[in-house]
Amino acid sequence: MKEIIKIHSRDNVVIALRNFNSGEVIDVEGKSITLLNSIERGHKIAIVDISEGGDVIKYGYPIGKATANIQTGEHVHVQNVRTKLGEVYDYAYHPALHELVHPQRNLTFNGYRRKSGEVGIRNEIWIVPTVGCVNGVAEQIIREFKAEVNPTDIDGIEVFKHSYGCSQLGDDHQNTRSILSDISLHPNAGGVMVLGLGCENNRIDEFETGLGDYDHSRIKFLSSQTVGDEIEAGVNLLKEIYAQVKQDKRVPIPISELKVGLKCGGSDGLSGITANPLVGYFSDFLISQGGTTILTEVPEMFGAETILMDRCVNEEVFEKTVHLINDFKQYFIDLKQPIYENPSPGNKAGGISTLEDKSLGCTQKGGIANVVDVLKYGERSKLKGLNLLSAPGNDLVATTALGASGCHIVLFTTGRGTPFGSFIPTLKIATNSDLASRKPHWIDFNAGPLAEDKTFAEALEEFIDKIIRVASGEKAHHEESGFREIAIFKTGVTL
What we know:
The protein is of the alpha/beta class.
């Protein structure tokens, strides 16, 4: 079993794949190195002397600079390395495009073909509150509906509670309306009831107009203040929706119609070695079959952004990517916050030292495919291939944004573990086998064996099979647990 890994030939550090004691000897390409410190799994070990101010290189790129002289065999981490990143940059386009070479396999999953032509992988009924004031009303409507109908022939019925929809201005108001509209139109829902109060600034009539040409038999509206008994009225509307939804049946759908979101959270030192590269291999595979993947977490692109920029298919997409990065940096600057206040304490405990370290591992989820488009927050995807999406790194906000952009599933890699789930299936992929064994009720797929004895080709086949099963109806663990949430990006004042 492997004990260390050198990711790239240019690297001057290796990664520990188990815990080491000070004084142990490791072999790196025929060179014996005595460890000067105890090293935890996922952490970095210097394999040459690194002078103060010199680059620490991992993934073949600098991840920071040494803040002191680092000796061969020494632990390389936050105590002796810091970021090299600055503020807003000017960028130049140096195309480095890739052609994906995967045989066409004509794979299918069993999904739902909607009237609009879009495809869903769940057939659920959703209540979408226009304002947080009616969250409790929505829950009571669902309880009464279930008691009267017992809807066992659909995939589920959910309310996606939030605290917004009123007392918001400008971008915050628009973000709330955009995300809720995107959820209402999402094809994983067989039917939706949009539930309002009646006096909120996210007005139902304007909300309905914003949906455009929607299926009136599947999306219904209720303003609580305009009816005598909002619970009874809501139950009756759900019955109308249910009469339509229960008729839907799964049919074979080409995998080319699958849209998959790419996200990580609670990363550790193995994230960029096991789970993230595996997701990248899958992203490239799906795109080669005509499918779509969407990568977000813009602050966790900082330090690796030029790799993505050089893979943009043309100058226009490059310029959109530059704005994606610099606009997000400006957001930090405008609020007088440090741009590079990252990684988190959990990331550091897992072996990630700087934002470059985190970002170079994070962006591997996008594989090597070319970037075809850049999406604004709340914008729905239009082009097949690898898309970039504007959203923060926060797990629930970013995952909600991926679902709102049209993703059917989110692939969520994690080294620390998390139980949450968004309004679409959110598959947790463990970076290490220890996490997978400790939290089997959280983890949907274990990428840990990639640091042990499994090849990426073997793991990819298992991963493809898992995703097709989930797309065909197999529940993710968070769905089985009933953990379904949304979070909307907020930047401004609350009235």
